[in-house]
């Protein structure tokens, strides 16, 4: 070997040794920094000041979720009134035409339904040992309709506890089951509130049995009603054996009496024993007392209810009537007594400095800031971003880092939301919820103060299942139309907009017909754009069922620099029908890394245009394991196009299939209509998974194709004298029946031919 070459090799070896040792040094210093950071964090946590501990113990972040029309908004209105946030009560669809505070959107007031979740806050002075203890409650009222499920999802993602409202007559209804599933998904402890005790046929104990049997969580009453229906007067607190009455024109005065009505004494003892027995099943301390045949003290019962509720094993049940202004205050006491404060809930983030290891966030003001933007809303003053502060505090004027975009943003204004009004604050503490102005981000982005490389898992966003074409009636409205589309998309991740390749029509997709109807209506009201819409369509998907190899060469020579790219590999189904996957197994640099990135882009783009009917693909995996480049003619674009070509050529050979959305459908109706409902379901090729027959109602759980469910609500109403109801939630995609696939392909070919003629 020539001397020069030896010298060169030595020096390059030296350089790489230096690089290796530099790398080790960097890694060590990074690890040291991470260790130091963790140590600092632990020290702060261990030395938590009593004031901070006290502040946290008095914060509750709760949501109210329930089946449609259970009285969430009506109950929230009372909460706001009794806590002094509003000075008069207005009803949902009330005669005064004002509408409830939390239904601030004109459309909500008109239809009497909640469309958007609304946040508010209040302070509840709870009597503890004869003193008023102030609790700060951040509260989110969520919609009941499944079409607005994202509002419930994102609320639950950031809340620490919930009040699940049930109707005293209807008990557990189809949407209660959905809400229950969502609460389980986010490990949300809950208390249950049985509302409408003033209604004819109110039976809270039937509702409790249904929570036990249908939702399969231990539930027991902590109150019993005094009177029922029109004679409903108040409740008896079973733990302390005290009667609680509401007095004053709007039930604002609470009278507590040691005297229990004589006719209720036995029931109090019976239900108190039932509460202790149920607790014994879920709490060791009570189990021991129960086995020793001792009676737990009220303090022991309360502590056990709290432990069991927070550990998700139990739900204490309160009852009342929001409309009749009864027993809302004891429910607020239960929120403070049994739902966790922010420091009692485990919130995790991923530490990017430690290979995304999970780290616990602790709601202390003195720790570095970590918060999650969970909801965006356009307001008159610009974009409003709702943030849940997980740790650290946020001050007006402070700079935050968006962990996803790595952009630094200044927070010019912080507000606390009170439905559609806001109250400006200069600082917000750990564990709280606020909204900020002037932050450009997406829903689900994590913010830090730059000190911590943390990101948080975002919420579950269900896929849209229904779509329709839409266009403004007048061309002059095009600007407002696209403005509205942009805004709706940014605010609601379940609402998507795209332009169809073939028809060039704008297509909006969402969670159901009502969801899309509401946006069309909002477009008219808020943007003055009248729209023409097409028939609702199911959002199909495409996939493959077989593995097929490809070897595709793109070579174009048109004078000057040409295009050259060769890609080899295979297309196959992924193990589970999930996101598409792209893998590269290229050895020896047959295709350089940067061109492989272009191949990935080509693959991603191709997956938005399935081979059969041009719908998005899922469950498709493409692997590139070899290829070739040309010294001058290869480029990113050539490799992107070559991948698209390979995809187009190979997909039709890989057993392509059209998939349709299958829906988890729950139907409840009086038992006598069972036959009619099953008949309806059979006609729609539904698969019945479970039927629960109660004394009065039947609940049927089944899988149905969305396609077969158009018009179902009208037919169900007809088949059940208007008494049946159902909810549908997207479950998964499955191959569409062959005749539907054939029809869809034929229609697609026809549309293509028509387009070619033009
Ligand atoms: N009898 C009786 N009716 C009630 C009670 N609470 C609410 N309602 C009525 O039930 C209807 C629905 O009440 P809302 O408060 O809008 O129910 P919601 O759960 O917020 O409704 P969505 O958000 O649309 O699901 C209204 O007509 C209320 O007046 C109650 O305690 N007793």
From TrEMBL:
Belongs to the GTP-binding elongation factor family. EF-G/EF-2 subfamily. Belongs to the TRAFAC class translation factor GTPase superfamily. Classic translation factor GTPase family. EF-G/EF-2 subfamily. Residues 57-343 form the Tr-type G domain. Pfam families: EFG_C, EFG_III, EFG_IV, GTP_EFTU, GTP_EFTU_D2. NCBIfam families: EF-G (TIGR00484), PRK12740.1-5 (NF009381), small_GTP (TIGR00231). Pathway: Protein biosynthesis; polypeptide chain elongation. GTP binds at residues 66-73, 141-145, 195-198. Mitochondrial GTPase that catalyzes the GTP-dependent ribosomal translocation step during translation elongation. During this step, the ribosome changes from the pre-translocational (PRE) to the post-translocational (POST) state as the newly formed A-site-bound peptidyl-tRNA and P-site-bound deacylated tRNA move to the P and E sites, respectively. Catalyzes the coordinated movement of the two tRNA molecules, the mRNA and conformational changes in the ribosome. Catalyzes the GTP-dependent ribosomal translocation step during translation elongation. During this step, the ribosome changes from the pre-translocational (PRE) to the post-translocational (POST) state as the newly formed A-site-bound peptidyl-tRNA and P-site-bound deacylated tRNA move to the P and E sites, respectively. Catalyzes the coordinated movement of the two tRNA molecules, the mRNA and conformational changes in the ribosome. Its main location: mitochondrion. GO terms for cellular component: mitochondrion. This is Elongation factor G, mitochondrial. InterPro entries: EFG_II, EFG_III, EFG_III/V, EFG_V-like, EFTu-like_2, G_TR_CS, P-loop_NTPase, Ribosomal_Su5_D2-typ_SF. Keywords: Elongation factor, GTP-binding, Mitochondrion, Nucleotide-binding, Protein biosynthesis, Transit peptide. GO terms for molecular function: GTP binding; GTPase activity; translation elongation factor activity. SUPFAM superfamilies: EF-G C-terminal domain-like (SSF54980), P-loop containing nucleoside triphosphate hydrolases (SSF52540), Ribosomal protein S5 domain 2-like (SSF54211), Translation proteins (SSF50447). Transmembrane segments: none annotated. GO terms for biological process: mitochondrial translational elongation. It is found in: Mitochondrion. The gene is MEF1.
